[in-house]
Amino acid sequence: MRKLIALFMLAGILFVPAFANAQEAAADSAAQEETTPVVEEPAASPAIVDDEIVAEEQSFHQVVKEKFIEGDPLYMTPVLICLILGLAVALERIITLNLSTTNTKKLLAKVEDALTSGGVEAAKDVTKNTKGPVASIFTQGLMRYSEGIEMVEKSIIAYGSVEMGRLEKGLVWISLFISLAPMLGFMGTVIGMIGAFDSIEAAGDISPSLVAGGIKIALLTTVAGLIVAIILQLFYNYLVSKIDSLVNDMEDASISLVDVLVKHKLTGK
User: Fold this and answer.
1) Res 247 pLDDT > 80
2) Any idea which of 2-6, 164-168, 210-214, 261-265 has the lowest mean pLDDT?
3) 197 to 204, 240, 267: CA distances (angstroms)
4) Span 177-192, average pLDDT
5) Around Cβ 112, how many Cβ atoms within 10 Å?
């Protein structure tokens, strides 16, 4: 026990002076920090940045608006009207054609089941409650079922032509705007070049500053007309391919309907 107490006393004698010296050093450093004057760093001089970097990049809408004004609204407005009207007709046709799409296999299965269970009247109810040109053609064919299969085929062919005309409705207007937009752009080009040559004639000298304005209007109107024509042409081709697909479905479904009706008549159900 005495040895243990002696060890504790020896440890205290060794560590107490070191702890005291550490406290004194910490106090001296704190006092030195308080007495040391704070030197303010000189303010950083503002960096000289290039105006092109500082300026915000123009958005696509702003660029189009600027070019529209530079191209002279008198010539650019008709081109813009062609774009708006063409897109309106194209979007209306896209929505209409997508709503006209019908699952012909499912419709044929329903018609065949209705013929088997409830006869022609039940099949008519199925086709009348289904939207789309295929269902309309089926309805017209079933209405002539009592007159024979030949009349059913003639009715389907005749009404198929009517439905095809409805599907192609509006395409002529898109085609018109596709042709009209570049023409209006070229007209602005010709008028701009005429203005440039008038300026040269009035000044009696060929100077870039005289002809730059007219040539710029000519180029901008031409580009605008070509861009509108390209956009509308893409929509036009999509609509034509969609109509072709619907027409093929109508023809295949009509043939299948005739086969179903012949089968139903032969079985006598």
Assistant:
1) yes
2) 2-6
3) 10, 44, 84
4) 87
5) 19
Q: How many residues does the chain have?
A: 269
Residue 22 scores a pLDDT above 60 = no
Percent over 90 (pLDDT), the chain: 18
Q: Scan for tokens 């752009």, then name that residue.
A: 185
- Joined together, the tokens standing for residue 153 give 């085929």
The answer to whether 159 touches 144, Cβ cutoff 8 Å, is no
Q: Is the dihedral of CA 197, 203, 207, 211 positive or negative?
A: negative
Please name the residue that has the structure tokens 């009696």: 204
Q: Residue written as tokens 């079985």? A: 267
Which two three-digit tokens encode residue 156?
């389907």
CA distance 221 to 262: 61
Quote the longest CA-to-CA distance of the chain.
Answer: 130
Q: Which two three-digit tokens encode residue 2?
A: 């005495």
Three-state secondary structure string covering the chain:
CHHHHHHHHHHHHHHHHHHHHHHHHHHHHHHHHHHCCCCCCCCCCCCCCCHHHHCCCCCHHHHHHHHHHHCCHHHHHHHHHHHHHHHHHHHHHHHHHHHHCCCHHHHHHHHHHHHHHHHHHHHHHHHHCCCCHHHHHHHHHHHCHHHCHHHHHHHHHHHHHHHHHHHCCCHHHHHHHHHHHHHHHHHHHHHHHHHHHHHHHHHCCCCHHHHHHHHHHHHHHHHHHHHHHHHHHHHHHHHHHHHHHHHHHHHHHHHHHHHHHHHHHHHCC
Tell which wins on pLDDT, 75 or 236.
236
Position 27 pLDDT exceeds 60:
no
